[in-house]
Fold this sequence. Notes:
This protein is mostly beta strands.
Amino acid sequence: MELVFEEEKTFDKSDFTESNLAKGEYNLCKFSGCNFSNSDLKDIKFYECEFINCNLSLAKLTNTIFRDVQFKDCKMLGLPFDNCNEFGLTVGFENCNLNHSSFYRKRMAKTIFRNSQLVEVDFTDCDLSQALFANCNLSDAKFENTNLEKADLRLAHHYSINPAFNKIKKARFSLTGVVGLLNQYDIEIDMTN
């Protein structure tokens, strides 16, 4: 199979559900309004690309490379980022729906999650040191042996993080968000005083 090399190309409203995106390397490319739902992105390399208003739900990401890739206004349900290439997953998310996705064992220091849905996302054994969660819904997200050192969760909501099983040194939380650090103790907190 011949591999493609695309640079600075724009893919507008392309549908990759019937025929997959060609295998190869994509540099500085822009994908706008594209449908990758259930498609196979195995072994494809994306460098400094943008995905805007795309549907990537349930795409296969075996050995996929995302380096310096930005996702904006994307539907990304159930994505197995844990299957991506081991080296250099550097991504950012804005206004994305990542519900039910997995980042298990991924190194994602300094990742920015902004205005995104992260319901039931698996962050087990993940390095999220210095990550930013700005206005993100982390309801039922799984944090276990997760490195959140120096992460900023001041504007995140609905999270439950057990400090005994996660690294949270110098992480930043809002006063109301501290409740998410105490959930496992089954205590009642009165916020009226």
